[in-house]
Amino acid sequence: MRSRRMVHRRGLIAAGLIALLSCALLLLMDRPPICTCGRIELWHGALDSGNSQHIADWYSLSHVIHGLLFYPATLWLLRKRPMGVRLALAVAVESAWEILENSPIIIDRYRTATIALGYSGDSVLNSMSDIGMMTLGFLFASRAPVWLSVAVAIGFELLALAVIRDNLTLNILMLTFPLDAVRTWQAAL
């Protein structure tokens, strides 16, 4: 029992260190630590230049969904490994996405292929919050019945779709295979 707890603790420590490393890398990439507006908001619901700059926004829902998806994926891939190790892997994947998402190639892709015309990337605060949101989704999925995780994911997707005409599904679609009809519909907000 004691060695299992130690392995779990090591996984959690690894997850924290991976998040800290991604924070350092984002700072080295010259990402702004906080919103260049000089404020820190707990929630920023408007789709404007403050989006992806504060602690949470409508896109935070998609990061929770990442965690809801990463939990069963890591369970399938690493069934015999403790949850701390699986969480560390999920944090590594989410951190890699945050670093890639804030690279010039993805920022330019968002600007050209999606409705995020003025997108300039995330603040470091927002990226760290996104990793935290994924972690919340992962931990929720580890405790909740599968049907509830699926219901939460679908609910979040539908909520974001209704409020901002965007969600994780459309984000993936528009980054990989942009459709003018979808872009036109999204811009009508």
Overview of the molecule:
The chain has one domain. It is 69% helix and 0% strand. The model has no long low-confidence stretch (mean pLDDT 94). Helix 1 runs antiparallel to helix 5, helix 2 crosses helix 5 and helix 3 packs antiparallel against helix 5. With 189 residues, it is mainly alpha-helical.
Short description:
The chain is mostly helical and 189 residues long.
Spell out the blueprint of helices and strands:
Blueprint: H1 2-28, H2 60-77, H3 83-101, H4 104-113, H5 124-143, H6 146-164, H7 168-176, H8 180-187
Q: Estimate what percentage of residues fall within beta strands.
A: under 5%
The separation of the N and C termini measures 54 Å
Task: Please mark out the parts with pLDDT under 50 across 5 or more consecutive residues, or reply none.
Answer: none
- Cα-atom Rg, whole angstroms? 17 Å
- Count every beta strand, where a strand is a DSSP E run of 2 or more residues: 0
H and E string: HHHHHHHH
Arithmetic mean of pLDDT: 94
Main beta sheet strand tally, sense and closure? none
Give the helix proportion (percent range): 55-70%
Secondary-structure class = mainly alpha
Number of helices: 8
Q: Write down the overall geometry.
A: globular
Supply the number of structural domains.
Answer: 1
